[in-house]
Design brief:
Blueprint lengths: L1 E2 L9 H14 L16 H20 L13 H18 L5 H21 L20 H23 L8 H11 L3 H4 L10 E6 L5 E7 L4 E5 L7 E5 L1 H8 L5 H4 L3 E5 L16
Parallel strand pairs: 2-5
Antiparallel strand pairs: 1-4, 2-3, 3-4, 5-6
Length: 279
Amino acid sequence: MQSLPVLDTAHLFPVVDAHLIALLRALAPADWEQPTLAPQWRVRDVALHLLDGNLRTLSMLRDGHFGGAGPASPAYADVVKYLNGLNNEWVAAGQRLSPAILTWLLELSGPAYSAYISSLPPFEVAAFPVAWAGEETSLNWFHVAREYTEKWHHQQQIRQAVGQEAALFAPELYQPFLSTCLRALPHHYRKVSAPAGAVVALAITGAGGGSWYLRRAATSWELGTGYTGPVATQIILDGSVAWRLFTKSLPRELAVQHMQVEGDRALADPLLGLITVMA
């Protein structure tokens, strides 16, 4: 089995931003009020959240301005509570912004955000760990890839709401999203028992999909590609909904309708609970 390569996603931020601005400019007034897969958020609210991501990153990480106390503790639950509070406060205040102003601010802040992301030395320690992958310390390349998944899936929530999902399913945009999310599998399976050497094969269909292999080592699970041996479980997941499963937007009872399993079902079920978002 081949080890996973370092992910290079910084060059993709201007690309997904260009898709976003073109999409928002083409929306009719009623489109901005459409509900999205994000609970209680309309299209305008998700767009506001994307703007918050740009401005908060530049203010906090580029300029060193945190603007208040952080979470009560580094504990996962406290971080999630803190982020949810920030998100809701911003969206509430942003209701004062018109769609035209919101689009303009996204277009204005996007290049500065992308420039900052590209300036981060990939192998230095990131300001924030990728907690959903079980890391307490992460390198910048993984932090940047995590931020790419945020940009990708929130824009796709908007696109799903207005029936324009195709653009982000392009392989060069979707495959990095999936590859980043699946880095959480070893942590997610950490309490799943299996004989050493047992392999779970995951194939995600579609042009942006691929094949990954999760192998049980002595005390942990390892994720890789290019495996050719026997497998204990084979999972085939519909690529058109995989992104929803990984971002808390596809209930288990619906997800199983898009997943085929051969072999030990107990080794497939944990995939249904894989979550690669914090808030």
